[in-house]
Design brief:
Shape of chain B: globular
Helix content of chain A: 25-40%
Distance between the termini of chain A: 74 Å
Strand content of chain B: 35-45%
Oligomer: heterodimer
Distance between the termini of chain B: 38 Å
Order of helices and strands of chain A: HHEEEEHEHEHEEH
Low-confidence stretches of chain B: 4-22
Strand order of the largest sheet of chain A: 1-8-7-4-5-6-2-3
Largest sheet of chain B: 6 strands, antiparallel
Number of domains of chain A: 2
Number of strands of chain B: 11
Protein backbone atom coordinates (compact mmCIF):
# COMPACT_ATOMS: atom_id res chain seq x y z
CA UNK A 1 0.00 0.00 0.00
CA UNK A 2 2.80 2.34 1.01
CA UNK A 3 4.62 1.52 -2.20
CA UNK A 4 1.55 2.21 -4.35
CA UNK A 5 1.01 5.54 -2.64
CA UNK A 6 4.62 6.60 -3.03
CA UNK A 7 4.43 5.65 -6.72
CA UNK A 8 1.30 7.79 -7.10
CA UNK A 9 3.08 10.84 -5.74
CA UNK A 10 5.59 10.59 -8.58
CA UNK A 11 2.87 11.61 -11.06
CA UNK A 12 2.87 15.37 -11.73
CA UNK A 13 -0.96 15.42 -11.77
CA UNK A 14 -1.07 14.06 -8.20
CA UNK A 15 1.55 16.56 -7.08
CA UNK A 16 -0.47 19.33 -8.76
CA UNK A 17 -3.70 18.22 -7.10
CA UNK A 18 -2.01 18.08 -3.71
CA UNK A 19 -0.69 21.59 -4.27
CA UNK A 20 -4.21 22.77 -5.21
CA UNK A 21 -5.58 21.14 -2.07
CA UNK A 22 -2.96 22.87 0.05
CA UNK A 23 -3.72 26.25 -1.56
CA UNK A 24 -7.45 25.70 -1.09
CA UNK A 25 -7.15 24.86 2.59
CA UNK A 26 -4.90 27.90 3.11
CA UNK A 27 -7.48 30.09 1.34
CA UNK A 28 -10.22 28.71 3.55
CA UNK A 29 -8.22 29.59 6.64
CA UNK A 30 -7.69 33.11 5.31
CA UNK A 31 -11.36 33.49 4.44
CA UNK A 32 -12.50 32.39 7.91
CA UNK A 33 -14.07 35.42 9.56
CA UNK A 34 -12.43 36.43 12.80
CA UNK A 35 -13.64 38.77 15.50
CA UNK A 36 -10.54 40.81 14.87
CA UNK A 37 -10.01 44.33 16.10
CA UNK A 38 -10.26 47.20 13.69
CA UNK A 39 -8.81 50.69 13.88
CA UNK A 40 -11.44 52.84 12.18
CA UNK A 41 -13.22 55.31 14.44
CA UNK A 42 -15.96 57.53 13.12
CA UNK A 43 -16.17 61.20 14.16
CA UNK A 44 -19.52 62.21 15.57
CA UNK A 45 -21.45 64.66 13.41
CA UNK A 46 -22.02 66.98 16.37
CA UNK A 47 -19.83 67.33 19.41
CA UNK A 48 -21.98 67.45 22.50
CA UNK A 49 -21.26 67.21 26.20
CA UNK A 50 -22.13 63.78 27.58
CA UNK A 51 -24.01 63.23 30.82
CA UNK A 52 -21.57 63.80 33.67
CA UNK A 53 -20.87 60.91 36.01
CA UNK A 54 -19.17 59.98 39.22
CA UNK A 55 -18.39 56.28 39.56
CA UNK A 56 -16.39 54.28 42.05
CA UNK A 57 -13.17 52.54 41.06
CA UNK A 58 -11.94 49.12 42.22
CA UNK A 59 -10.57 50.70 45.40
CA UNK A 60 -14.04 52.09 46.14
CA UNK A 61 -12.82 55.65 45.45
CA UNK A 62 -15.20 57.94 43.55
CA UNK A 63 -13.97 59.37 40.27
CA UNK A 64 -15.61 62.33 38.58
CA UNK A 65 -15.31 62.69 34.79
CA UNK A 66 -15.21 66.48 35.18
CA UNK A 67 -11.75 66.35 36.73
CA UNK A 68 -10.30 65.46 33.32
CA UNK A 69 -11.62 68.55 31.50
CA UNK A 70 -8.80 70.02 29.41
CA UNK A 71 -7.49 66.55 28.53
CA UNK A 72 -8.38 64.10 25.77
CA UNK A 73 -10.32 61.26 27.40
CA UNK A 74 -10.96 57.77 26.05
CA UNK A 75 -14.00 56.22 27.74
CA UNK A 76 -14.32 52.49 27.17
CA UNK A 77 -17.45 50.54 28.20
CA UNK A 78 -16.63 46.87 28.68
CA UNK A 79 -17.23 43.60 30.54
CA UNK A 80 -15.07 40.57 31.28
CA UNK A 81 -17.59 38.20 29.66
CA UNK A 82 -17.34 40.10 26.36
CA UNK A 83 -14.56 38.58 24.14
CA UNK A 84 -13.82 41.68 21.99
CA UNK A 85 -13.62 43.75 25.21
CA UNK A 86 -10.92 41.40 26.46
CA UNK A 87 -9.19 41.47 23.06
CA UNK A 88 -8.88 45.24 22.98
CA UNK A 89 -7.95 45.78 26.66
CA UNK A 90 -4.17 45.22 26.15
CA UNK A 91 -4.18 47.82 23.35
CA UNK A 92 -5.70 50.36 25.75
CA UNK A 93 -2.82 49.76 28.14
CA UNK A 94 -0.31 50.12 25.29
CA UNK A 95 -1.98 53.41 24.29
CA UNK A 96 -1.81 54.49 27.94
CA UNK A 97 1.94 53.81 27.89
CA UNK A 98 2.42 55.64 24.56
CA UNK A 99 0.57 58.68 25.90
CA UNK A 100 2.47 58.87 29.21
CA UNK A 101 3.28 62.49 30.08
CA UNK A 102 0.68 63.88 27.69
CA UNK A 103 -2.81 65.13 28.63
CA UNK A 104 -4.55 61.90 27.61
CA UNK A 105 -6.63 59.81 29.99
CA UNK A 106 -8.13 56.36 29.57
CA UNK A 107 -11.11 55.28 31.64
CA UNK A 108 -12.56 51.78 31.35
CA UNK A 109 -16.09 51.45 32.72
CA UNK A 110 -17.11 47.93 33.60
CA UNK A 111 -20.75 47.05 33.10
CA UNK A 112 -22.43 45.30 36.00
CA UNK A 113 -19.76 42.84 37.10
CA UNK A 114 -18.45 41.99 40.51
CA UNK A 115 -15.14 43.65 41.43
CA UNK A 116 -13.70 40.21 42.30
CA UNK A 117 -14.42 38.97 38.75
CA UNK A 118 -12.87 42.12 37.27
CA UNK A 119 -9.74 42.01 39.43
CA UNK A 120 -9.20 38.32 38.73
CA UNK A 121 -9.30 39.09 34.99
CA UNK A 122 -7.08 42.18 35.18
CA UNK A 123 -4.41 40.29 37.11
CA UNK A 124 -4.15 37.81 34.23
CA UNK A 125 -3.09 40.62 31.89
CA UNK A 126 0.61 41.28 31.49
CA UNK A 127 0.92 44.17 32.01
CA UNK A 128 -2.20 44.70 34.07
CA UNK A 129 -3.99 47.95 33.18
CA UNK A 130 -2.80 50.95 35.16
CA UNK A 131 -5.58 53.34 34.07
CA UNK A 132 -8.78 53.74 36.12
CA UNK A 133 -11.34 50.94 35.98
CA UNK A 134 -14.73 52.20 37.12
CA UNK A 135 -17.82 50.25 38.13
CA UNK A 136 -21.12 51.02 36.42
CA UNK A 137 -22.87 48.56 38.69
CA UNK A 138 -26.43 49.17 37.56
CA UNK A 139 -25.41 50.16 34.01
CA UNK A 140 -26.95 53.60 34.33
CA UNK A 141 -24.03 55.52 32.81
CA UNK A 142 -23.95 53.22 29.78
CA UNK A 143 -27.65 53.81 29.32
CA UNK A 144 -27.25 57.60 29.67
CA UNK A 145 -24.43 57.57 27.11
CA UNK A 146 -26.52 55.57 24.63
CA UNK A 147 -24.33 52.46 24.76
CA UNK A 148 -26.18 49.61 23.04
CA UNK A 149 -23.51 46.93 22.91
CA UNK A 150 -20.12 46.09 24.36
CA UNK A 151 -17.48 47.19 23.80
CA UNK A 152 -18.32 50.78 22.94
CA UNK A 153 -15.75 53.55 23.26
CA UNK A 154 -15.80 57.32 23.03
CA UNK A 155 -13.05 59.84 22.57
CA UNK A 156 -13.74 63.16 24.27
CA UNK A 157 -12.04 66.37 23.17
CA UNK A 158 -10.35 68.74 25.61
CA UNK A 159 -13.64 70.57 26.13
CA UNK A 160 -15.17 67.34 27.39
CA UNK A 161 -17.35 66.84 24.31
CA UNK A 162 -17.96 63.51 22.58
CA UNK A 163 -15.83 63.66 19.43
CA UNK A 164 -15.51 60.05 18.24
CA UNK A 165 -17.42 56.84 18.86
CA UNK A 166 -16.42 53.22 18.21
CA UNK A 167 -18.81 50.28 18.46
CA UNK A 168 -16.93 46.98 18.63
CA UNK A 169 -13.34 46.14 19.49
CA UNK A 170 -10.48 48.36 18.36
CA UNK A 171 -6.69 48.23 18.34
CA UNK A 172 -6.30 51.43 20.30
CA UNK A 173 -2.57 51.84 19.81
CA UNK A 174 -2.92 51.66 16.03
CA UNK A 175 -1.23 54.67 14.34
CA UNK A 176 -4.60 55.81 12.90
CA UNK A 177 -6.13 56.12 16.36
CA UNK A 178 -2.97 57.68 17.84
CA UNK A 179 -3.18 60.23 15.00
CA UNK A 180 -6.80 61.07 15.92
CA UNK A 181 -5.74 61.66 19.52
CA UNK A 182 -2.79 63.80 18.39
CA UNK A 183 -5.17 65.92 16.30
CA UNK A 184 -7.52 66.37 19.25
CA UNK A 185 -4.60 67.41 21.45
CA UNK A 186 -3.65 70.11 18.95
CA UNK A 187 -7.16 71.62 18.81
CA UNK B 1 -5.93 2.84 -7.10
CA UNK B 2 -4.50 5.85 -8.89
CA UNK B 3 -7.95 6.78 -10.25
CA UNK B 4 -9.45 6.39 -6.81
CA UNK B 5 -6.83 8.65 -5.30
CA UNK B 6 -7.39 11.30 -7.98
CA UNK B 7 -11.15 10.98 -7.47
CA UNK B 8 -10.82 11.42 -3.73
CA UNK B 9 -8.61 14.45 -4.20
CA UNK B 10 -11.08 15.96 -6.68
CA UNK B 11 -13.91 15.52 -4.19
CA UNK B 12 -11.86 17.06 -1.40
CA UNK B 13 -11.18 20.26 -3.36
CA UNK B 14 -14.86 20.95 -4.10
CA UNK B 15 -15.64 23.82 -1.71
CA UNK B 16 -18.09 22.44 0.88
CA UNK B 17 -18.20 25.82 2.57
CA UNK B 18 -20.12 27.28 -0.35
CA UNK B 19 -22.77 24.58 -0.43
CA UNK B 20 -25.43 26.63 1.36
CA UNK B 21 -25.64 29.36 -1.26
CA UNK B 22 -23.24 31.33 -3.35
CA UNK B 23 -22.43 33.91 -0.66
CA UNK B 24 -22.72 31.92 2.54
CA UNK B 25 -19.61 30.25 3.94
CA UNK B 26 -20.33 27.31 6.20
CA UNK B 27 -17.82 25.91 8.63
CA UNK B 28 -17.79 23.13 11.19
CA UNK B 29 -15.30 23.46 14.01
CA UNK B 30 -13.24 20.27 14.07
CA UNK B 31 -12.79 20.25 17.83
CA UNK B 32 -16.21 21.30 19.09
CA UNK B 33 -18.34 20.18 16.15
CA UNK B 34 -20.12 23.54 16.31
CA UNK B 35 -21.23 25.09 13.04
CA UNK B 36 -21.05 28.68 11.88
CA UNK B 37 -22.19 30.58 8.83
CA UNK B 38 -20.74 33.74 7.37
CA UNK B 39 -21.98 36.06 4.66
CA UNK B 40 -20.46 39.26 3.32
CA UNK B 41 -22.36 41.42 0.89
CA UNK B 42 -21.78 45.01 -0.23
CA UNK B 43 -19.60 45.89 2.74
CA UNK B 44 -21.64 44.24 5.47
CA UNK B 45 -20.79 41.01 7.27
CA UNK B 46 -23.09 38.70 9.18
CA UNK B 47 -21.58 35.80 11.10
CA UNK B 48 -23.79 33.30 12.95
CA UNK B 49 -22.30 30.78 15.36
CA UNK B 50 -24.02 27.93 17.16
CA UNK B 51 -24.08 27.92 20.96
CA UNK B 52 -24.93 24.71 22.78
CA UNK B 53 -27.86 24.90 25.26
CA UNK B 54 -25.56 23.90 28.13
CA UNK B 55 -23.21 26.75 27.25
CA UNK B 56 -26.11 29.20 27.07
CA UNK B 57 -27.25 28.13 30.53
CA UNK B 58 -23.71 28.32 31.94
CA UNK B 59 -23.22 31.77 30.40
CA UNK B 60 -26.34 33.20 32.04
CA UNK B 61 -25.66 31.48 35.36
CA UNK B 62 -22.24 33.11 35.20
CA UNK B 63 -24.00 36.47 34.86
CA UNK B 64 -25.91 35.77 38.11
CA UNK B 65 -29.20 34.98 36.39
CA UNK B 66 -31.57 32.84 38.49
CA UNK B 67 -31.37 29.14 37.60
CA UNK B 68 -34.98 29.12 36.32
CA UNK B 69 -34.31 32.02 33.94
CA UNK B 70 -30.97 30.65 32.70
CA UNK B 71 -32.67 27.30 32.06
CA UNK B 72 -35.55 28.98 30.27
CA UNK B 73 -33.26 30.93 27.93
CA UNK B 74 -31.27 27.78 27.16
CA UNK B 75 -34.45 26.02 26.10
CA UNK B 76 -34.61 28.31 23.07
CA UNK B 77 -32.37 28.20 20.02
CA UNK B 78 -29.65 30.71 20.88
CA UNK B 79 -26.94 31.78 18.44
CA UNK B 80 -24.05 34.17 18.62
CA UNK B 81 -24.25 36.82 15.94
CA UNK B 82 -21.58 39.24 14.82
CA UNK B 83 -22.28 42.01 12.36
CA UNK B 84 -19.70 44.35 10.92
CA UNK B 85 -19.86 47.35 8.65
CA UNK B 86 -16.90 47.04 6.31
CA UNK B 87 -18.28 49.66 3.93
CA UNK B 88 -17.48 53.36 3.83
CA UNK B 89 -20.96 54.66 4.76
CA UNK B 90 -23.11 53.94 7.83
CA UNK B 91 -25.23 50.78 7.73
CA UNK B 92 -28.18 49.82 9.92
CA UNK B 93 -30.13 46.72 10.76
CA UNK B 94 -33.52 46.16 12.37
CA UNK B 95 -34.05 42.65 13.69
CA UNK B 96 -37.83 43.16 13.79
CA UNK B 97 -37.70 42.91 9.98
CA UNK B 98 -35.81 39.62 9.98
CA UNK B 99 -37.59 36.26 9.68
CA UNK B 100 -36.68 32.64 10.09
CA UNK B 101 -38.38 29.54 8.76
CA UNK B 102 -38.07 26.31 10.72
CA UNK B 103 -39.35 22.78 10.18
CA UNK B 104 -43.02 23.85 10.18
CA UNK B 105 -42.40 26.03 7.11
CA UNK B 106 -44.00 29.19 8.46
CA UNK B 107 -41.99 32.46 8.70
CA UNK B 108 -41.52 33.74 12.26
CA UNK B 109 -40.01 36.85 13.82
CA UNK B 110 -36.98 36.71 16.10
CA UNK B 111 -37.43 37.04 19.84
CA UNK B 112 -36.10 40.53 20.48
CA UNK B 113 -34.00 41.95 23.28
CA UNK B 114 -37.01 43.96 24.49
CA UNK B 115 -39.02 40.73 24.87
CA UNK B 116 -36.35 39.36 27.19
CA UNK B 117 -35.90 42.64 29.05
CA UNK B 118 -39.60 42.69 29.96
CA UNK B 119 -39.24 39.23 31.48
CA UNK B 120 -35.91 39.92 33.13
CA UNK B 121 -37.17 43.12 34.70
CA UNK B 122 -39.78 41.10 36.61
CA UNK B 123 -36.93 39.03 38.05
CA UNK B 124 -34.88 42.12 38.87
CA UNK B 125 -32.26 41.38 36.20
CA UNK B 126 -30.64 44.39 34.59
CA UNK B 127 -27.99 42.70 32.41
CA UNK B 128 -29.10 44.04 29.04
CA UNK B 129 -25.98 43.57 26.91
CA UNK B 130 -26.20 39.81 26.47
CA UNK B 131 -28.81 40.05 23.71
CA UNK B 132 -28.16 41.89 20.47
CA UNK B 133 -29.79 45.34 20.26
CA UNK B 134 -32.93 45.09 18.10
CA UNK B 135 -31.85 47.92 15.86
CA UNK B 136 -28.53 49.63 15.45
CA UNK B 137 -26.56 51.84 13.09
CA UNK B 138 -22.92 51.01 12.46
CA UNK B 139 -20.55 53.71 11.33
CA UNK B 140 -17.71 52.62 9.03
CA UNK B 141 -15.59 50.13 10.95
CA UNK B 142 -18.17 49.48 13.66
CA UNK B 143 -19.22 45.99 14.60
CA UNK B 144 -21.06 44.23 17.37
CA UNK B 145 -21.54 40.70 18.58
CA UNK B 146 -24.07 39.24 20.95
CA UNK B 147 -26.79 36.59 21.20
CA UNK B 148 -30.05 36.20 19.31
CA UNK B 149 -32.96 33.94 20.25
CA UNK B 150 -35.21 31.90 17.97
CA UNK B 151 -38.25 29.92 19.02
CA UNK B 152 -36.94 26.67 17.58
CA UNK B 153 -36.06 23.25 18.96
CA UNK B 154 -32.47 22.25 19.64
CA UNK B 155 -30.97 20.71 16.49
CA UNK B 156 -33.73 22.11 14.24
CA UNK B 157 -32.77 23.33 10.76
CA UNK B 158 -33.91 26.74 9.58
CA UNK B 159 -33.59 29.45 6.96
CA UNK B 160 -32.89 33.06 7.90
CA UNK B 161 -34.12 36.01 5.89
CA UNK B 162 -32.05 39.02 6.89
CA UNK B 163 -31.85 42.59 5.75
CA UNK B 164 -29.87 45.73 6.43
CA UNK B 165 -29.87 49.23 5.05
CA UNK B 166 -27.34 51.73 3.72
CA UNK B 167 -28.08 55.12 2.14
CA UNK B 168 -31.84 54.33 2.23
CA UNK B 169 -31.23 51.20 0.17
CA UNK B 170 -32.36 47.87 1.60
CA UNK B 171 -30.03 44.92 1.13
CA UNK B 172 -31.76 41.59 1.73
CA UNK B 173 -30.50 38.05 1.71
CA UNK B 174 -31.22 34.48 2.73
CA UNK B 175 -29.07 32.08 4.71
CA UNK B 176 -30.21 28.51 4.18
CA UNK B 177 -29.37 25.27 5.92
CA UNK B 178 -28.74 26.84 9.32
CA UNK B 179 -29.14 24.66 12.37
CA UNK B 180 -29.69 25.22 16.09
CA UNK B 181 -27.09 23.61 18.32
CA UNK B 182 -27.93 20.74 20.61
CA UNK B 183 -26.14 19.23 23.54
CA UNK B 184 -23.91 16.23 22.85
CA UNK B 185 -25.74 12.95 23.39
Amino acid sequence: MRKILSNCFQYPIVQGLLLMLLCYSTQLQAARPQAELTHQIAPLSQRVLPKAFTLKDLQDEPLDLERYRGQVVIVNFWAVWCPPCRNEMPSLQRLHTIMQGRPVVIIAINEGEDSFVIERYLLQLKPSPTFPILLDTNMEVASQWGVMGLPTSFILDKQGRLAYKAVGGREFDHPDIVKIIDTLLKE
Amino acid sequence: MFRTLVGLLMISIVPPALSEGSLVKHNIDRQSGLEDWFVEQDGFQIHLLQVRPDNVKAFYLGRDFPVEMATRISEYCVLTIRMRNTGAAPASYDLSKWEYIGADGSPKKLMLKEDWLREWKKSGITMAFTQLPSAQTFEAGDWNGSLITLRLAHGEKFTLRYQWQRNNQIHAGVMEGLRCAKNPE
